[in-house]
What does this fold into?
Amino acid sequence: MTQKEVVIGHRLGIHARAAARLVQLSSQYQSTIVLFRSDAEKALEADARSILSILLLSAGFGTTVGVRADGVDENQAVDTICEYLTG
It folds into this structure.
């Protein structure tokens, strides 16, 4: 399992179009990919292949989000998703 934290660099945060792009990126990998926020009152997690769960994270500009992947291509998946999230 590989995990990294990143600060959202997109000016509008993770809005619908950005969430759709995350789903596209995540679908390219075999690994299970999860986005999470631990700064909320209770920890929130989202399946990176579900646009609705990504939007429910409510991750705006400057929010710290973790990316966790588990599988054969986990390192590449985490790096790609983190690179996209930083803007």
Helices lie at 16-26, 51-55, 74-85. Residues 3 and 12 are 24 Å apart (CA to CA). The radius of gyration is 11 Å.
